Amino acid sequence: MYRFLLSRQWVILTLVALVLIPTMIRLGIWQMHRYDERSARNQLVSDALSADPVPVERMTAAGHTVTSKERYRSVTATGRFDTDDELVVRRRTNSDDEVGYHVLTPFVLKDGKVLLVNRGWVPTGATQTAFPKVPVPPAGEVTVTGRLMPDETTAASGIKNLKGLPDRQIMLINSEQEARRLGKQVLGGYIALTTPEPKGDTPELLGRPGKENAPLNYAYAFQWWLFAAGVPIGWIVLVRRELRDRREAAEKETAAQAEPAAV
Question: pTM for the full model?
Answer without folding.
Answer: 0.77
